[in-house]
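Dear U.,

Please find below the material for section 3 of the report. The protein was modelled together with NAP; I have listed the sequence and SMILES used, followed by the predicted complex structure.
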Amino acid sequence: MHTTVLITGATGTVGREVVIQLSMLEGDIRVRAGVHSLIKGENLKRLPGVEIVEMDFESQASLHAAFTHADKLFLITPSTKYQVDMSRTLVDEAKKKGVKHIVKLSGIGADEEHGIEMARWHTAIEQYIVASGIPYTFLRSAAFMQNFANYDAESIKNEGKLYQPLGEGRVAYIDVRDIAAVGVEVLTGSGHEGKAYELTGPEALSNYDVAHILSEVTGKQVAYVDVPEEAARQAMLQQQQPAWMADALLELNRMYKAGGSSKVTDTVRQITGRAPRSFRQFAEDYRECFV
Ligand SMILES: NC(=O)c1ccc[n+]([C@@H]2O[C@H](COP(=O)([O-])OP(=O)(O)OC[C@H]3O[C@@H](n4cnc5c(N)ncnc54)[C@H](OP(=O)(O)O)[C@@H]3O)[C@@H](O)[C@H]2O)c1
């Protein structure tokens, strides 16, 4: 008997890693990568045993094929307020098709009663999953190390500057490869149903620490520029972020600045048996993005 695992957001930062790591397993796992666009999913096709299926979270009709005979779901939705409605649509379809386990990528703080806006999106989704009655596991992740490669690489590469409004705030950044490793263990192991795991990297770093490590690894000077909040807001608006998204991001950054995501957990090691990657390891592996 094989198990079919559907991964949504499979071309994204975490989804791609989950697909890669699941595809490397031997055994009876069938990996179904849910992609928004078939063209973007093209390179996932080359992975052993991976099937690609197109899906649009905003169209219930597009979900039928993706969920047919899916046993488990790794649920990833994009980082916007619309992810709440998208996730409800996906959970409804999962329920209709008899999915037996949902592993949801969530965020640290999703369990806090008076959390920040971005955490509340995850709270709403988690509550909807619990109410669906489908067995679940929540992976409440800290900020990704890969955010530096996705959003800051240009200025680091071109100007030797890391612009962020975090002051000296320390964040327990995690490498998404470790989130994926936990996800794979949860999907293929037992005893994880009904659990919520807080996932962090091995240490809490300030952006001064991050810039220092990037300088050492790239061999060129990278300086952290602590941007005033209003300037950060203007930059986000110029990059066509809607005002509500800029506000939500600034609130998140304020929480980071105040040390609200500096707690380090040992969960990655407990579940995978391996220590989470350090920021230096991440920087070495992604060096090409920054030079
Ligand atoms: N970044 C962080 O530090 C952090 C920390 C904790 C939790 N999180 C959570 O992580 C999640 C995001 O994960 P990620 O960063 O891996 O995502 P991501 O890289 O932004 O990728 C999002 C994925 O969703 C797909 N997608 C977007 N809209 C879609 C739609 N309408 N229908 C079908 N697919 C759609 C995208 O495909 P296209 O690109 O083709 O549209 C992409 O594959 C969010 O829930 C966020 O709150 C993030």
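For the text of the report, you could mention the following: The radius of gyration is 19 Å.

Regards,
Y.
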